[in-house]
Design goal:
226 residues; mainly alpha; two-stranded antiparallel ribbon; 10 helices; 2 strands
Amino acid sequence: MGWITVVLVLDSEGSLALQRTLGLATWALLMLALRTERLPVRVQTAIVVVFATVVEYTFAPLLGAYTYRFDNVPWYVPPGHGLVYLAALWFGRSSVVQQHLRACTIAVIAVGGAYSVYGVTLAARLDVLGLFWFACLVGFLVWGPSQPLYVGAFCVVTYLELVGTHLGNWEWAERSPLDLVPMGNPPSGAAGGYGWFDLVALLLAPPLLRWWTGRQVSAQDVLDSR
């Protein structure tokens, strides 16, 4: 979280060369952070990085859902998704979340719900997409397999989006691609997207681990590794 904040502050008024340097440093930090993790978590993080990078290049330069300062995808963004995923995972492992998961879940739904309702009632920009994504987050919190991670994702991603848009690192368009729904800057329920990232990681990690290790690996084994 501290490194993400430093990167956004430095990049908000820095040059393209600085942005690329921050990207290389972020890759190095991600590799360092993964050294202490078990293989299943490393594989899940790698899947999230690849999937999120595809999403970034599709929705930023191609579809224009949001725009970065230099009309690119900054080099720190792909590894940054890995750090955000790990931060959400570590947040979910904390004793506070583990011992008070139900209370934390209710708090996320209450705060996130208020934020999303604000986005479709009082906000300067109507934010229908944020409300939809918040509904996705609630669905993952209620029925998903990784409630602690979703609680962490809400805190980490919401913070990241608020800081990044406030500093001008990126800006969301007023309407979604294909002009479907209005969007806030940032969309209030952006953390719901990480539920989908995690779902993709859970689906792809077992076969990749079976291929890599030659042993049978189930989705429950992957969950237990967290």
